[in-house]
Structure formats: C-alpha cells, structure tokens
Amino acid sequence: MAVIYEKVALIGLGLIASSMAHAMRQRGLVGSITGHAKSAESRAAAMELGLCDAVFETAAEAVEGADLVVLAVPVGVMGHIAAEIGPHLKAGATVTDVGSVKQAVIDAVAPHLPDSVHFVPGHPIAGTEHSGPRSGFATLFENRWWLLTPPDGTDPDAVARLRALCEGMGANVDEMEPAHHDLVLAVTSHTPHLIAYTMVGVADDLGRVTDSEVIKYSAAGFRDFTRIAASDPTMWRDVFLTNKDATLEILGRFTEELFALQRAIRTGDGAHLHDYFTRTRAIRRSIVQAGQDTDAPDFGRGGTSKSDGTRG
Amino acid sequence: MAVIYEKVALIGLGLIASSMAHAMRQRGLVGSITGHAKSAESRAAAMELGLCDAVFETAAEAVEGADLVVLAVPVGVMGHIAAEIGPHLKAGATVTDVGSVKQAVIDAVAPHLPDSVHFVPGHPIAGTEHSGPRSGFATLFENRWWLLTPPDGTDPDAVARLRALCEGMGANVDEMEPAHHDLVLAVTSHTPHLIAYTMVGVADDLGRVTDSEVIKYSAAGFRDFTRIAASDPTMWRDVFLTNKDATLEILGRFTEELFALQRAIRTGDGAHLHDYFTRTRAIRRSIVQAGQDTDAPDFGRGGTSKSDGTRG
C-alpha cells in the first residue's frame, strides 16, 4: 500500500497507539513514527519494540513536522495535550484522537488548535482488557468499526485521508455526529462497562461468599464481567466523567427495566420473565448475522475469544 | 475407564444431557443410555445422533431399570417429573439433577422419591448459549466444576460413585450445602445473567439508537451481554423464580453499589470511580491465576472463546 502520511506522531503509547504503530508499519502506510508518553518506561518500551523511530519527553517535541498527530491519551487529559502541542503543529497537519467520548474531546481540544490544522476526531471500537505499549498488535482493528466525527466544515480531503489510513489498518469507517456517537456508545459500551464494574464490586464485597468461591466458580457468567471490569481505570473514569449525560440517561432506563424484572421475580411473574428473555435472545441472532460475532458455542477454554468489549 | 453405571436414564435431552451422553460414551463410563424428552423432535435427534440406545415418550418408561437417573429439565418441572418417575425407580438407583438452583429442586423432588433410592443433587457449572440435543459436545465439562449438594445422611458410596462419573467426564467435583450453593451462584451467575438480559432489553427499547446501530457497534462490551442474554428463556425464568431470595438479595446490593457509582458520575467524583475500577481489576487477576480463564487478550475474532457463562 502507498504511504498515506509521511510522518505520524503518536501522543500516548498505550494499547491503541501501539497497535496502530504495528498496523501502520506492517502495511507500509506511513513513513516514520514519533512518539510521546508521560512515563519513561513506556517510551523505552516503544523504542525497544520498534513502535517509534524516535520518542520524546514532551508532546510538543513529538509533533514537530508531523503530518498526522494521534491523541491516544485518556479523554480527561486531551485538552491539556492540545494546549501544549497547538503552537508546535505543522500547517496543514491533521490532528485526530482515539477517545471513547467525542463531544467532550471536541470541546476540550478544538479551541487549542490553530486554523491551519485539520481536526478529525475518531474512535476505533476495538480493544482488549490489557493496557500499555506491550499490549498492542497489528490486527486489532481488522473488521472493527472506526468512527469519525468531523465537525461541520472540516476539509473533506483531510477526512478522506484519515479514512484511508483507518481502512488501511483493516477497519471499517463510518462518520457520525459527535452527540449521537456518545449516546450510541453509552448503550453499547459505557453503561455495560459500569454495570460489569458494579457486579464485580458487589461480589468482592460479600463476606459470606468468600473471594475464593467467587473466583473458583466464576465460569458461570461472572467471568465475562470480570474481564470487562479489568479494563484501564483511568480511561474509564474519564469516559464516565465526560459522557455523563448520556450514561446517566441510559443508566436511568436500565434501573427502570431492572426494577420491573426484580418485581416480576418477587411476585413470581414467570410470563413476564420468559417474554423478556425471549425478546433479548433475538438481538443476539442479529449480531451474529451482522458479522460482529460468530455462532460458535462459547465454552470456556479457548486462548482467544469472540469479544473485545473492553475499550470505549 | 471402567463402567461406573450399567444403565443411565437421561430425562431431558438438552445441552447438558446431550453433552453428558457424548462424554460418557466417549470415555466408556456407562453401559447403556435411555432418554426421554417431551418433544418428538428432540427424541428423534437423540437417536439420530446416537446419544441414546432407546428413547421413550414418558419419563416413567425411560427410568425402568436405570442405575442412574439424571434430571436435566428446567428447574420448574423437576417436581412433576419426580412425581411421575418415583414409583418406577429401581431399588438402589441414584437420582441426580443438573439444575442451577439446588434448594428448590431438593424441596420439589425429594418428597416423591422412595426411600430405596439415593438422591444426590448436582450442578455442573458449564454451558454455552446454545440449547437442545444438537448443541452437546463431549468436552463441555472438562476442567469445569460440578457441585454436588447431597442432603445429610445420604449414602457416601452413592455420592462417591456419582463423583467418579463426573470426574470421569473431566469435571472437578466439590460438595456444598444447598443454600450456600444458591447464594454463591446468585453472585457468580444468576444476577449477572439478569443484568445482561436487562441491558440488552434497554438497548432494544431505545428508539433513538436504532437496532442496526446497536448491533453494528456491539463490539464494545455490549456483545458479551448479548451472548449471555441469548441463553434458554425457560431455564432462566425457572432459575429466577426458584432462587428468588438469594437473587433479590444480591440485586439489592447491586443497585446500592450502582447508585453510589451513578452519584459519583453525577457529582464528578473521579477519585471514587478510579478507586472502584482499580479494585475490580484485581479480581480479574485472581481469576486468571485460579486457572478459570486465560490472560490472552480478548480481541474479538476467535471461533471459540474463554467464556461459558451462559448456564446457571
């Protein structure tokens, strides 16, 4: 494949950035890659693994001369990074991000970027429960969605170029309004994660059901929750703080439905439960048909799995 | 391996019974297998697949002369089946079940069994989201827990023999008090399933987030929930109706914790969220260390997966 960006700067060197580095290099999509991470250990790992051609102690240094700057830090620090790099960006450069929330990132980042720069926010819906530069791999984005939420008036050529990069890494690309993105993700990702965190916390709290029993017999449903709840705490804190309204709205709906089911259990209303469970079963079939999962039975011993529901 | 039971009767021919048939035959643990299922289609499938040597239209016929009778029907019909087969059981036979709830099964089944029969309730913590006689496979129980909850005074030899059968199919066996079993499973399985069902129902209800979007972008967490929520509706209805007290207790704890996290989101209390998410992450590590899951990253495309959290 042809080189799409001559020089790419990765700000933050976690799972997503390191996977991008692997994918971009393997497919020859970029000329060179610079990187910045706050921690010296991450910077050293990025050099050791060959993710970057050069790493820098500051984001400002890393973005010098870059044609594409990727903000791959927790949503809560995007604004600070933007303020730092704003004056150092090359005219005509594109800035994107990989945050799981889009409106808050746009609000925090856009004011700091010069007019000479294209801002095309993005969100790859892909991940694992692992974090850090050593967790990345080249195929993370294959057949996954990468959502772009460019503000009105963004240069179409800049969007098309970023789209080509994402597609070059194997992703499917869609464009979406930022606020709509945040609501959709509150349903498909943010609220499910909060619920998983909560359930794992409850299990941890219960004195009568000892830790060892919960862990020993975790095969039955709970284990999926623990995997989801093992995701990066800082990233998820920022997701909830910055996608507050949509998450609270969906949580409200969730507790309403949960209370209705709880009432059906209490009153012994088997018909209500059976109807509800039959309806949700149909949704699963749609997902399998949409190619976002397989119909293979899920029986607990594979080294890999069908799920990547652990990031944004 | 030596034959442990000469003649086994499987009452109900779903995922668990059909997996037992495959496992028992493959490992030479039993002489012959008879079966009963309510539906003619399931009975025909059991013969076609070679699960049973003979199938019968009634459970009473199927249990004639059996050394081991396995009740593998939804928890809610166990009592009716027990009443039907009681007079037809061979003296000295063992009756077990595979229900996800134990106290309610004991209450429903025990009164119908003659004194000449050993009743050893059980629960294999294994499953997939599929159901029916065609969904079984011989390795379902390998390295999974099979909990036995024999009432006080049960013949130790009868328990040891059933244990040998379970271990012969590859399972690890533990004994437990029925009420404690029901509480542990309410935490590790029943409540997580109810929550997953609820979340999938919420997504289905939301007019603004169209079905196609929820499905399209389901990779991010929600997909795990849909898999769990695809499990057999009748089985799960009965689980919640018969493990009511423990499920309601854990649900109460769950909503308490969820409201605390919801409040932290509303008030912007990032420290509370971060602390909570850090704590739950540690539980995941314990599960990986306990050998009930692998540490391999979970990135969404394998044909098999690490989870079997879809049954009781």
From TrEMBL, chains A, B:
Enzyme class label: oxidoreductase
Enzyme Commission designation: 1.3.1.12
Reactions this protein catalyses: prephenate + NAD(+) = 3-(4-hydroxyphenyl)pyruvate + CO2 + NADH
A family per Pfam: PDH_C
Prephenate/arogenate dehydrogenase domain span: 6-295
Lineage top rank: taxon: Bacteria
MF GO annotations: NAD+ binding; prephenate dehydrogenase (NAD+) activity; prephenate dehydrogenase (NADP+) activity
Family: Belongs to the prephenate/arogenate dehydrogenase family.
Protein's UniProt name: prephenate dehydrogenase
